[in-house]
Amino acid sequence: MNKIKKISVIGSGYVGLIQGVGLAELGFEVVGIDIDETKVKALNKGECPLYEEGLEELLKKHVNKNLVFTTSYEPIKESEIIFLCVGTPQDKDGNADLRFLFSAVEKIKETIDKNDYKVIVIKSTVPVGTNRKVKELLKDYNVDVVSNPEFLREGIAVYDFFNPERIVLGFENLDNKKPIEIMKHVYKYFDEKGIPFIITNWETAELTKYASNAFLATKISFINELAKLSDKVKADIKTISYAMGLDKRIGNKFLNAGIGYGGSCFPKDVKALIKQFENNDIEPILIKATDIVNEEQIKWFFEKIKNYYGNLNGKTFAVLGLAFKPNTDDLRESRAIKLIDMLLENGAIVKGFDYVKKARKNATNLYKFDKSMAFYGYNIYILDDLYETVKDVDGIIVTVEYNEFNNENWEKISNLVKRKVIFDGRNILVPEKIKKFGFTYFGVGR
Ligand SMILES: NC(=O)C1=CN([C@@H]2O[C@H](COP(=O)(O)OP(=O)(O)OC[C@H]3O[C@@H](n4cnc5c(N)ncnc54)[C@H](O)[C@@H]3O)[C@@H](O)[C@H]2O)C=CC1
Ligand SMILES: O=C(O)[C@H]1O[C@H](OP(=O)(O)OP(=O)(O)OC[C@H]2O[C@@H](n3ccc(=O)[nH]c3=O)[C@H](O)[C@@H]2O)[C@H](O)[C@@H](O)[C@@H]1O
């Protein structure tokens, strides 16, 4: 097989950028294509538009060497492999919105020569049947379409790129060895590392992605539902999770009770999976419950806060954590933001903090530019310093699972707050330690 020279990666968001930078580090010549001109300009200067540990260093190492970014689709003419990494957000009915994907496919059609062989690899999370549709759209072209769902986690995405737990590849016809060989060549590094490859058909690959996310989300909703009972009967959900997790069949991961899952994927992918069931006339009982439990969890936690104070009007809260999880700037479906909105709607004053500078910047922009928030705009402050954030507050609310919170100076914090009350929405603090400084502590199910 000819050595693959150039790879195009369409979409330079969390997935596309990691994919592009990662492939560049593996020695390929990569072109990143995005419709966002500002993003492309920044990337070509080696500036990372999103925060991901280790990403900017790798970007700087390869940009303008074996990695370039452009808004033009022209470079795909020179690439045998084209990765599609555009967003597939939720539409108004809960389905995956494939507008960006189909628009990228249209651009591919306009650009490539019908006779030039290409492998088009869909990394975006797409509903069952999408790879087939894309192939149908390209039926007059000499292309193979491959489903290659992405499993990376934000916050540790660079690590995940180089250390995947599996590589799933879905093909139209397993007897057609050409695209299989090409994909194995691109992912040779992982093959040599002994990472399992799952070579299957399109539908299995597409559904594996949704199944994985929905299963993890279900584990979280399961423990969150149990946490409500645990809370009431004074059991300790952390001990329950630990004890459950020691059973290897259950495992200890994703059993941390809290204020629910957020992010750009679990909420939308669970909803999109529900829609795929419904579109196939099957009632998705369990997965629907996962979604409902998650939507309710934050409301339950908020009620807990409200019940304690009686009236939130004029009360000031320090909200520790803004993004949907630690070490990211991503505010999409962040439970912290949902909680802040509820506090503001109830007349509270919010002081928000996150360790990630870009998360603070994104939150500042969100409240500054979101017109619907303008009404209570003056009631929200995003601060750069944790101690400033807790100063004179009626309560501290932990919304992101940063272990680092335990290493802060709690004696100092206890002297800064107006009232020593903590609502730990992620069960991340060590209550014994905090209580020593006179705090009243509320967790989730403990
Ligand atoms: N963010 C994550 O951790 C993960 C995301 N995924 C999936 O990967 C896909 C991408 O997700 P993210 O990277 O988070 O999205 P994102 O929103 O961060 O990035 C998407 C990028 O695509 C660009 N784009 C849109 N239309 C385009 C077009 N026609 N041509 C070129 N560029 C275009 C946008 O400007 C944007 O930069 C989604 O399907 C998502 O569900 C899968 C695993 C992990
Ligand atoms: O498809 C995707 O986009 C990705 O979605 C998740 O990754 P991510 O959204 O980055 O974050 P997670 O670490 O999975 O956390 C998701 C949410 O669940 C919450 N969570 C996680 C674990 C837990 O025990 N409890 C809990 O509430 C987190 O706080 C966070 O809000 C999956 O873990 C990835 O494998 C997948 O590729």
Give keywords.
2 domains; binds 1,4-dihydronicotinamide adenine dinucleotide; Rossmann fold; 43% helix; oxidoreductase; 446 residues; 6-stranded parallel sheet; UDP-glucose 6-dehydrogenase activity
Task: Give the SSE layout.
Elements: E1 6-10, H1 14-25, E2 29-33, H2 37-44, H3 55-62, E3 67-70, E4 81-84, H4 99-111, E5 118-122, H5 130-137, E6 143-147, H6 157-162, E7 167-171, H7 177-186, H8 188-192, E8 197-201, H9 202-233, H10 237-245, H11 266-279, H12 285-309, E9 316-320, H13 335-345, E10 349-353, H14 357-369, E11 380-382, H15 386-390, E12 395-398, H16 410-416, E13 421-424, H17 431-435, E14 440-442
Parallel strand pairs: 1-2, 1-4, 2-3, 4-5, 5-6, 7-8, 9-10, 9-12, 10-11, 12-13, 13-14
Helix pairs in contact: 1-3, 9-11, 9-12, 11-12
Bound molecules: 1,4-dihydronicotinamide adenine dinucleotide and uridine-5'-diphosphate-glucuronic acid.
Written description of the protein model:
Strand 9, helix 13 and strand 10 (349-353) form a beta-alpha-beta unit. With 446 residues, this protein is α/β, with parallel strands linked by helices. The protein is globular and about 70 Å long. The chain is 43% helix and 14% strand. The mean pLDDT is 96. It has 2 domains: 6-195, 3-Layer(aba) Sandwich (Rossmann fold), CATH 3.40.50; 225-442, Rossmann fold (3-Layer(aba) Sandwich). The strands form 3 sheets. The chain has a 6-stranded parallel β-sheet with strand order 3-2-1-4-5-6, with helices on both faces. Strands 11-10-9-12-13-14 form a 6-stranded parallel β-sheet. Helix 1 (14-25) crosses helix 3, helix 9 crosses helix 11 and helix 9 (202-233) runs parallel beside helix 12. It binds 1,4-dihydronicotinamide adenine dinucleotide and uridine-5'-diphosphate-glucuronic acid. Uridine-5'-diphosphate-glucuronic acid is lined by residues 125, 150-154, 213, 216, 220, 254-256, 258, 261-263, 265-266, 324-325, 401.
